[in-house]
């Protein structure tokens, strides 16, 4: 049986880093970051682009699920609302999958520290701080496994996810 890992969390919490680490730790793994499915300039969030990104993500994840080369499929994206998770799961062929839906959470201070580091390094724009912090409490209401990453390294978090 394949394992599908859906990893959500606010911007800057470490989803991509942890997803890449999981890809190396798990056997025959493939990793998809949802942001790659609508990386555009200018970045536009409209009803049309939101529908398109869900189509892109579900198409790719179903292809990975159906490909015999992969035992573990890892997907990360912000996924701050239960409707996003439910819509995505409804689009996937999960008959032969053990699904782990995980939300990475942390303290406001830890997320602020991580984002400020990225902002100061020029990796992110300053407006990400307010947007990310505003979404942080939303993860507590989701039907997901919560993993607090406030005081853990990405490697430690990846090891915890492997044990799920």
Can you characterise this structure?
There is one protein chain. The chain is α/β, with parallel strands linked by helices. The protein has one domain: Rossmann fold, CATH 3.40.50. 43% of the residues lie in helices and 19% in strands. It has helices at 15-25, 47-66, 82-91, 108-120, 128-135, 154-162; strands spanning 2-8, 29-33, 72-77, 97-105, 145-148. Strands 2-3-1-4-5 form a five-stranded parallel β-sheet, sandwiched between helices. It is globular and about 45 Å long.
Present the secondary structure layout.
Blueprint: E1 2-8, H1 15-25, E2 29-33, H2 47-66, E3 72-77, H3 82-91, E4 97-105, H4 108-120, H5 128-135, E5 145-148, H6 154-162
Parallel strand pairs: 1-3, 1-4, 2-3, 4-5
Helix pairs in contact: 1-6, 4-5
Key features of this structure:
6 helices; Rossmann fold; alpha/beta; 5 strands
Q: Using the coordinates above, name the CATH class.
A: Alpha Beta
Biggest sheet strand order reads 2-3-1-4-5
Q: Give the CA-based shape.
A: globular
State the low-pLDDT regions, or none: none
**CA-atom Rg in angstroms:** 15 Å
Would you count the extended β strands for me? 5
Query: How confident is the prediction overall: mean pLDDT?
Result: 96
Q: Briefly note the CATH topology name.
A: Rossmann fold
Number of domains: 1
The CATH architecture assignment turns out to be 3-Layer(aba) Sandwich
- Estimate percent helicity: 40-55%
Q: What is the strand content?
A: 15-25%
What is the structure about, briefly put?
The chain is built from six helices and five strands.
């Amino acid at each position: 049986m394949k394992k599908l890992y859906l990893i959500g969390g606010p911007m800057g919490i470490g989803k991509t880093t942890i997803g890449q680490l999981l890809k190396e730790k798990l056997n025959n793994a493939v990793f998809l970051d949802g942001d790659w499915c609508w990386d555009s300039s200018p970045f536009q969030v409209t009803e049309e682009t939101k529908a398109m990104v869900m189509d892109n993500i579900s198409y790719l994840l179903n292809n990975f699920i159906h490909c015999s080369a992969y035992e573990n499929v890892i997907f990360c994206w912000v996924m701050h609302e239960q409707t996003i998770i439910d819509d995505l799961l409804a689009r996937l062929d999960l008959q032969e999958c053990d699904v782990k839906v995980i939300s990475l959470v942390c303290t406001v201070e830890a997320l602020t520290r991580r984002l400020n580091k990225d902002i100061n390094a020029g990796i992110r724009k300053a407006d990400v701080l307010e947007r990310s912090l505003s979404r942080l409490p939303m993860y507590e209401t989701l039907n997901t496994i919560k993993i607090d990453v406030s005081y853990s390294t990405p490697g430690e978090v990846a090891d915890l996810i492997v044990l799920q």
